[in-house]
Amino acid sequence: MNDTPPGIDEQYRAMLLQRTGEERLIMGCAMRDTARALVEASLLEQDPNATVETIRKGVFLRFYGHEFDSETRAKILAAIELATHPVTKF
After folding, report:
1. What crossing angle do the helices spanning 21-46 and 52-64 adopt, rounded to 10°?
2. What ranges make up the beta strands (E) of the chain?
3. Do 57 and 77 contact (CB within 8 A), yes or no?
4. How open is the CA angle 60-83-67, to the nearest 5 degrees?
5. CA-to-CA distance for 81 and 59, rounded, in angstroms?
6. Are 18 and 42 in contact (CB under 8 A)?
7. Residue 3: how many CB atoms within 10 A of its CB?
8. Are residues 4 and 19 in contact, defined by beta-carbon separation less than 8 angstroms?
9. Which of 23, 65, 66, 77 could form a disulfide with 19 if both were Cys (CB 3.0 to 4.6 A apart)?
């Protein structure tokens, strides 16, 4: 859905292009950080006792889960679990 008049879209784009590449990168990173914080807050609202592992898996699934087939998704989730609880050898 796009309910923004074309003239406003053009004006907004011109404003963005007036910024330096560094400023645009910082804006993009801030938007990504905000999106992640919102997802984490949503996960914690659903389960206030969620572990770091649960949050990491939830963030992955929300952002990227749809981009992988079930087998690959399961491997990635297992890797997240392993990274959260590394096995140490003596």
Report:
1. 120
2. none
3. yes
4. 25
5. 13
6. no
7. 4
8. no
9. 23
Write down how long the chain is. Answer: 90
pLDDT at 65: 95
**Alpha-carbon gap, residue 27 to 18, rounded angstroms:** 13
Closest CA to 59 of 33, 82, 83, 85: 33
Tokens of 26: 């910082």
Instruction: Please name which of 27, 51, 70 lies closest in space to residue 59, comparing C-alpha atoms.
Output: 51
Higher pLDDT, 55 or 84: 55
Model confidence pLDDT, tens digit, residues 22-73? 999 999 999 999 999 999 999 999 999 999 999 999 999 999 999 999 999 9
